[in-house]
Amino acid sequence: MSSxxxxxxxxxxxxxxxxxxxxxxxxxxARFDGRFFVxxxxxxxxxRPVCRVRMPLQxxxxxxxxxxxxxxxxxxxxxxxxxxxxxxxxxxxSPHALAQQAARLLDLAVAEGRPMRLPQVAARLGVTxxxxxxxxxxxxxxxxxxxxxxxxxxxxxxxxxxxxxSITDIAHATGFGSLRRFHxxxxxxxxxxxxxxxxxxxxxxxxxxxxxxLVRLPYRPPYDIAGLLRFFRNRAIPGLEQxxxxxxxxxxxxxxxxxxxxxxxxxLTFDATRPEVHLRPCAALLPHLGAVIARCRVxxxxxxxxxxxxxxLALLPTAVPAxxxxxxxxxxxxxxxxxxxxxxxxxxxARTLALRLVASLGEPLADAPAGLTHVFPTAAAVAAxxxxxxxxLGIVRQRVGALQGLARAVAEGRxxxxxxxxxxxxxxALQALPGIGEWTAxxxxxxxxxxxxxxxxxxxGVLNALGSRDIAAARLRAEAWRPWRSYAVxxxxxxxxxxxxxxxx
Length: 505
Fold this sequence. Notes:
Largest sheet: 5 strands, antiparallel
CATH topology of the largest domain: Endonuclease III, domain 1
CATH architecture of the largest domain: Orthogonal Bundle
CATH superfamily of the largest domain: Hypothetical protein, domain 2
Radius of gyration: 23 Å
Strand content: 5-15%
Mean pLDDT: 87
CATH class of the largest domain: Mainly Alpha
Distance between the termini: 39 Å
């Protein structure tokens, strides 16, 4: 299947290319979900390729690489398959990486309900507004403003459908700024009022308890669920995380755009019959559901494309399961701090140190399920702690310096730790801190920045799996796995997982 449609953003009429996309749509194959959308001219609606409505005739179909392109062409989102649930972009090292990075910044702004203007995005990426608009249009077929508008409306549509949040709260949570502006945009784009969308929900969806309880997060199969859950289970901190047979509970903190700190908990469960994860957030996190969803999608690598990744992993010296995923981060500072605590110690030792840090400086959490007691300490709390306090937890002096250096940089805003942060600049800033070398920075890029091509060449687990202690040779060998070296690292770690004491934390 050609990727021309998805990368150029051009809609297609009947042609050999559109015939192939139409065949993929007929198959309802979830691997194509999010890779294209189909607008049906006879209804004015656009759908995901997995939609189960009656198949339209091919001559009525127009194919688009992104939801924003379909909406720019005048199509409305399908209320049945819900395009806002489609898996999103997987950021790769490609000629369009800058446009994808811009899209991630816009997505993050929508998730957190923050306003985001194009000059801010361009400045963050170190390019001019004009250049960003040009490469963005080449990648997505729409302007950044059109892309941002579609993402906000689709995020609002999901909150209207999956929660009982008030429409006013949803308008502010998705960055519209005012209820009037939200109503106007929704009506203009979808020819439907937000209140009317709520009335159209099914009886089950309309039940308040069900609407509060469940948010669906689809992914593209295959997915190595067992491998990802095993990774998190082996590193779980009691009080912070609690594993279940097909998922886990964990605590979470959200820093809002107006400077507030919201703490709570959530449950994540892999559905046994459909390619989706079920998110059940506590009531405190519901007003910030966009940010919670964004973190979950990164942490569980729900936007990965196995068709692109698995061929590279077939070149590894050890067999890996199909659909291997990159375990990410629910909280950037937490994961980076745990990477530092895992320097030159076993997984079990790193977990013990993290548990002591949570018990000493973490914020207690009330009204949580049994086993969840704290949220991870903030960067400000770790920066303000005395070195002696941290030393009494068993953290050696060098690790204390690295941990507090990172905490100060994050608390002062000098380093941003999330999936939309610029990779090269963040790596340079991290390695300028005391006690953080290439190994630590690469692991943070891999898990916190969700960078698919990170490679900690000196990692003992990687070297053991390769049967060599030659770091230069490991780097040379890893060139064949680009741009998916982060996934290759996870695959090599899995090979050594049963005796997992020598794997990074």
